[in-house]
Amino acid sequence: MTAPVLLREFEDFAANGGGSGPSWLLPLRRAAIDRFAALGFPTPKNEDWHFTSVAPIAEGTFRALPGGPARSVRLGAADVEPFTFARPDWIRLVFVNGRYDAALSSGAARPTGVTVTDLARAWREQPEVLERHVGKVADYQRTAFTALNTAFMHDGALIQLAPDVALETPIHLVFVSTPEAAGSASHVRTLIVAGHHARATVIESYVSLGGATGYFTNAVTEAVLGDGATLAHLKLQTESERAFHVGTLQAHQGRDSHLVSFAYAAGGELARTNVYTLLAGEGSGATLHGLYLLDGEQHVDQQTRIEHASPNTFSREVYKGILDGSSHGVFNGQVFVRPEAQKTDGKQENNNLLLSAQARIDTKPQLEIFADDVKCTHGATVGRLDEMALFYMKSRGIGAERARKLLTYAFAAGVIEAVGVPEVRAELEALTLRRFAGAGAAAGS
Amino acid sequence: MLDIRNLQARVGGGADILKGITLHVNAGEVHAVMGPNGSGKSTLAQVLAGNPAYEVTGGSATLDGNDLLAMQPEERAHAGLFMAFQYPVEIPGVSNAYFLRSAYNEIRKAHGQDEVDPLEFLDIMEKNLALVDMEPSMLNRSVNAGFSGGEKKRNEILQMAVLRPRLAILDETDSGLDIDALRIVAEGVNKLRRPDNATIVVTHYQRLLNHIVPDFVHVLSAGRIVKSGGKELALELEEKGYDWIETPAEAVA
To answer: In chain B, how many domains are there?
Structure first.
């Protein structure tokens, strides 16, 4: 997937289908691929990629788009059932190897004022809203992977909420990769537009089936929050330990809007999660939570960027990581406070638990404040299991191994409890416990 | 029941803190271990419970004939030992109910008994909560997290009530308690006294012993028991302080 190969593949793509869609789309793609050609794949000299080498992706032999076998895979409902939180009633779009699968997706009726459509259809039926926002929020000028996605984006979702619409049940996007995806990349693109005072929850699940390996997911989600809108966005990345993943959520927030993001990363050989938001409107705020559980040889990187661009904006951020084996975790939390963003109130925390001597974490809180009347704090911790707590549990008869697992689970519990969707919270508890403890350990159960 | 002979121990490779403790405790007895700060009384409690920060350098300790010092802390708990911590540890994210049920079941498993399910366990808990005047709602709170000093100590006694140890060691359980909390804790301990169990009360002050009346009082100084007697010894200490206790010469350092 070296840059010259990608440029050639783009020409093929542009000539064969990539040029379809509204008239503005191909020029946007061209602008993005040109930008990618100029940027190239990031190197560790790039401040945003200081602790992560993308060489396995850049030097990999991924085709820019899923080829024949990956596209002809047919899955049954039973294959994706494990990823549905036992809620077949949710509005759900399922993508297999980056391609929308109508048969697996739920045809649940959309409430009035709610649009949930696959992108291919949206290009045809709702080009105006796409033209207004696609490529305007997700910054392909600065970020090579976003440029790549913008050049090759082919499928994904459009989610649109009319003003004042409050949707109680989540909208679920499931991105499944199968063994046939090996050697290919998928550039899925999602646009979420929440009208003023609208409220919704969007869940994105990235999963592997049948031990899928050697594929690259490069997902971009753009979110536009109107004045007073609330968007809860949950990203659950549990791909195989031989998958490559870069996923970006980039939001633009209107006045008094609230973005509540939760990012869970447990999969991938090399995985990167970006959560970026621009607090453009006065009084807007972002609550970002994250949990990464790493083991083996995994390298998993999370970067968040909160730009306070208006007065009285707030941000709350807690990311926690548990690292075992020889895994390598990265957390970079950027908070920028522009001169006009007086009375900014920001808190950021990153806590890491190292379970093995070989595991490594690079944590880098990064605050850049250009306003003088702000309240911003940040803290990062790296620790091991509390020996006194272990002794306390053992002294009550709880065996060493179980005590260790229970304490590990307890470390993660704080951010899991922040997840607002009970089904997802229960699933995260189960996932964490399966990895670290026996069932039912949570406070309150 | 408990048989300690010439026990010596230190922390972190330093000099011995315990310099030869010999103590015998029989079923049904309450022993008080008193002494000034630094005399080694808390070290004795920690060493018996198996705190890995301490290193035994000599002597022996057996519980019902079993070598305590050869056991892991959890094995000591399975054998019937319980230490109420001076500073109970906070474990955010693990509920009290889950923690206690895990401990209860692990001890049952060690004795070849079936585990109890959460509902059965709730019955057991309800009986014991009243003993320490605690609300059922505290079962859903994280272990000791955000508890007041008194709540933490009561939680220790609750654990003791549920786990029904053969030998309970209360490590300065009275420290930092107001008189009401002290009374609740002491009443709890008294109600748990049975002919087949025993209690060691480690304390700096005599006031707890007004409520938990000991059969024997031992005074520790510089790592040795320098005086043993009945409950009247505690009153004498209260009146005269620790200064009149003879300090072993080599301990003046």
So the answer is: 1
